[in-house]
Specification:
The chain is mostly helical. The chain has helices at 5-14, 21-32, 38-51, 70-111, 132-136, 138-145; strands at 54-56, 66-68. 17% of the residues are buried.
Length: 153
């Protein structure tokens, strides 16, 4: 099974029901934050149709909707299951690194006299750029580290 990111995005969008090209592009932008250009989108549609993972429906007002096939749904489900396992493994392996980065970033913030609370005192100057854990934000720390911002174990 040879998946590309555009193919996964298109299949995921069509798993919610038939859509034409513009509706696919807007849905993908909404749920993934990714803008697929027309060449990328229609190239993916063509390849997916060749594989039998999607099929074109009769045109409606000059728009041709597509729908996912049973084979496409099965392939997407298998790919997403594998991707989920890889994601879980990657996040689990990154936890110690994220925790170290968080501790380092909190220490750096304390040395610079920055507040852990949002507000004027928490705005770093040009020389005090946040590290990787700070860019994730407190919600990510809570999720990945199992503790709320400011708590200790």
């Amino acid at each position: 099974m040879d998946f590309t990111e555009p193919a996964v995005l298109v299949l995921t969008s069509l798993a919610d029901g038939p859509k034409h090209g513009y509706a696919l592009a807007k849905d993908i932008e909404t749920f993934a934050g990714i803008k697929l250009g027309p060449g990328t989108l229609y190239g993916a549609l063509s390849r997916l149709e060749e594989r039998g993972w999607i099929e074109a429906l009769p045109a409606q007002d000059r728009r041709r909707p597509y729908q996912i096939t049973a084979a496409g749904a099965e392939s997407l489900a298998g790919h997403l299951e594998t991707a989920s396992k890889v994601t879980a493994t990657g996040l689990r392996r990154l936890e110690p690194r994220l925790a170290r980065a968080l501790i380092r970033d909190l220490g750096r913030a304390a040395r610079l006299g920055l507040s852990a609370r949002p507000g004027p005192a928490a705005r770093p100057g040009p020389a005090a750029r946040p590290g990787p854990a700070a860019r994730l934000g407190p919600a990510a720390w809570t999720t990945r580290l199992g503790l709320a911002f400011g708590e200790s174990r």
